[in-house]
Amino acid sequence: MFVGVCELDVFIHASGSLKEKRFVVKSIKDRVIHKFNVSIAETDHLDKWQRAGLAVAVVTNEQSVIERTFSEIIKLIEAHGEAEVVRHSVQIY
User: Fold this and answer.
1) Which residues are 92's β-sheet partners?
2) If DSSP states are collapsed to H, E and C, what string results for 28-62?
3) Whole-angstrom Cα distance, residue 67 to residue 31?
4) Fewer Cβ neighbours under 10 Å: the N or C end of the chain?
5) 3-state SS of the chain: helix, strand, coil percent to 5?
6) Contact 56, 5 (CB under 8 A)
7) Backbone φ and ψ of 58, nearest 5°
8) Partners of 87 in the beta sheet?
9) pLDDT score for 14
10) Could you give the C-alpha distances from 62 to 16, 36, 47, 65, 74, in angstroms and in order?
11) Which pLDDT score is estimated for 81?
12) DSSP conformation class of 17
């Protein structure tokens, strides 16, 4: 069994308030959960209106699945144009 955790630092382009940021973050979280069936939460930059720190967790029996899933999640987030992943780190246990 492998557990993967990916920490994402996301820049939200068009956000002008915390309310707009929350809308974008909720949209991202809903899309990621629906497509990949993973756990995701906002964990950092809670008081900044153009940045979000997200953490994603995956449990699977193959390490390659974790790496592929995180790569696809980053592509999904950036594909909608609302946000840009400026930094990410992956830890596999």
Assistant:
1) 4
2) HHHHHHHHHCCEEEEEECCCCCCEEEEEEEEEECC
3) 19
4) N
5) 40, 40, 20
6) yes
7) -135, 140
8) 9
9) 85
10) 41, 15, 36, 6, 19
11) 87
12) S
Q: What string of pLDDT tens digits covers the 93 residues of the chain?
A: 999 999 999 999 988 999 999 999 999 999 999 999 999 999 999 999 999 999 999 999 999 999 999 999 999 999 988 999 999 999 999
Indicate the residue type of 9. D
Residue type at 13 in one-letter notation:
H
Residue 19, both tokens: 């309310």
Token pair for 8 = 């994402």
pLDDT at 76 (0 to 100):
97
User: The sheet that has 83-92: what strands, in order across it?
Assistant: 39-44, 51-60, 2-12, 83-92
Distance CA 17, CA 53 (A): 16
CA angle 63, 44, 32 (to 5 degrees): 50
